[in-house]
């Protein structure tokens, strides 16, 4: 696979067909001037050493040299290599609630999409931290194992919707247990779980799970998404109703999220529309002791530009040596 590190220079290749065209026009104008001067055949006889064919050979060589030079400027690279490098940072597992209650529209466009936008913005600010992504509703699932591949993280994040977990509910405790098991073996100190949910836990003992994480040295930060007065949940163009036909209103349960954060030696933040709450948490993580990780990444490519520059130089030298004169046959006859 070939990539160009500075591909914008390739636009100069549009000039390539113009070079022989301009040369042909110049030659045509020259012949025209010769015809004005006198008989074209007689003028040629006055210039016996001039070679029109060599002129075209030189322009072809110059054009090829120009192409090679432009390709060299664009820095062609081939053969991505696996490279292992040491990085220092924290491991962050983000647990994102994807239950139907996250479709409530007390945030724009809704709770889930607003959370995804906030996570994406934070990923853009990360440098050497490792990030993983867990989605949960009635059960939990590792959407992305811990990685420093932030491009993949954003790609996986964009594919999440409320149908990503078919089992409805809000099993916060299960999500925490999944996160605990998802940290890498390299991580011992700087391990963080960021839990983003409306807090309506119906499935398990989230506080007990958070206590387990805290005892293992893992901090848990919770971000409450929603409002205390609640919002109805739009599903398939209609508002979600219970078995009795009453409209379901999803309310933020801050009490549970505060207890989970306290048990996990972290903090609780209520997400606002402008400041979602992730920035102060990332600032807290920055103050933690950074750990050193080994990270294997595709980052090194073999540079090929020098070969194209060398070829361009060689072609220019040949173009100069070719000249425009025919070889002197008398030299060979004397020999």
What are the main properties of this structure?
335 residues, alpha/beta, six-stranded mixed β-sheet, three-stranded antiparallel β-sheet
Structural notes for this entry:
The protein is α/β, with parallel strands linked by helices. 41% of the residues lie in helices and 23% in strands. It is built from eleven helices and 13 strands. It has helices at residues 18-37, 40-46, 52-73, 111-125, 150-158, 172-182, 206-215, 254-263, 278-286, 305-322, 329-334; strands at 2-4, 76-89, 91-97, 130-136, 140-147, 191-197, 218-224, 231-232, 234-235, 238-239, 249-250, 268-270, 291-303. Helix 6 packs parallel to helix 7. The protein is elongated and about 105 Å long.
Helix/sheet category:
alpha/beta
User: Helical element count?
Assistant: 11
What amount of the residues lies in strands?
Answer: 15-25%
Alpha carbon gap, first and last residue:
54 Å
Spell out the helices and strands N to C.
Answer: EHHHEEHEEHHEHEEEEEHEHEHH
- Radius of gyration, in angstroms, nearest whole number: 34 Å
Provide the residue-averaged pLDDT.
Answer: 85
Low-confidence stretches: none
**Helical content (DSSP H or I, runs of 4+):** 40-55%
Give the strand order, joined by hyphens, for the main sheet: 5-4-3-6-7-12
Q: How many DSSP-defined strands?
A: 13
What best-fitting shape do the alpha-carbon axes yield?
Answer: elongated
Largest sheet: 6 strands, mixed
Q: TL;DR?
A:
By secondary structure, the chain is an alpha/beta fold.
